[in-house]
From TrEMBL:
GO terms for molecular function: deUFMylase activity. It comes from the Eukaryota. The lineage of its organism: Eukaryota, Metazoa, Chordata, Craniata, Vertebrata. Belongs to the peptidase C78 family. Transmembrane segments: none annotated. Gene3D superfamilies: 3.90.70.130. Residues 51-241 form the UFSP1/2/DUB catalytic domain. Keywords: Hydrolase. Pfam families: Peptidase_C78 (PF07910). It comes from Astatotilapia calliptera (Eastern happy). InterPro entries: UFSP1/2_DUB_cat. This is UFSP1/2/DUB catalytic domain-containing protein. Residues 1-27 are annotated as: Disordered.
Amino acid sequence: MDKKSVPAPSEEEIDWGGSGAGGSKNLQKDKTLLKNVHTGLPNPPSGAIKCSLIKGDYLYFHYGCDGQDDRGWGCGYRTVQTLSSWICHNCSPPKNHCRPVPSLPEIQQALVTMGDKTDSFSGSREWIGTFECSLVLDHFYDVPCKVVHVRGGGAELEHVAVAELHQHFEKHNSPVMMGGDRDNSSKGVLGVWTGDKGSYLLVLDPHYYGCDLDRTELQRRGWVAWKRVSSLDQSSFYNLCLPQTARLLNVF
């Protein structure tokens, strides 16, 4: 859902930052990232009762996209970077200051500086989740987040999570980070579809690693896809990190 009537470019060069915590060591300055990779994706195979989607532009961050091999531990960081890119594209910068998307080392150092992690966290391969996402977005962009805990089970996911997501996308427009305990793979959520055959989430998966793919191929391989809520791990709890961006939104 681009905020302009004309199609947005599918790729964008990005300023990787890297000014702190040794961030420049693993970054490829000429790297381009795909933008709005869900565009053109077919709707779920059920009649829509209600559909709520993000608005505005974002970049798709995934394993290894900056030259750092973070397979097995970096999915939370990549989702945070995707959410950060949306804030950079669509929100008025607080205090006339807008910084680039933080690198993985910068995210780690910020959590140490805030006192959430010990010094040994910097340079480690420790995971981060939705709570750390909320801290990072507040630290770098002055964007507070609402963290919602959803207990495992179909009823909780179908009702609590879906209702929260509809409300979020309608008011705040921004992507969401989702993670759990048994299902501890970080996900970006770009939309929610309530249909006559159940609900679906529009999931952006940061776990892709490999050569550059175009938007069509990413969709074909399922790296961005509508996923049935009932297909999620019913024995896992889930947390949602919902950036509260309404006060900072540019006009769509």
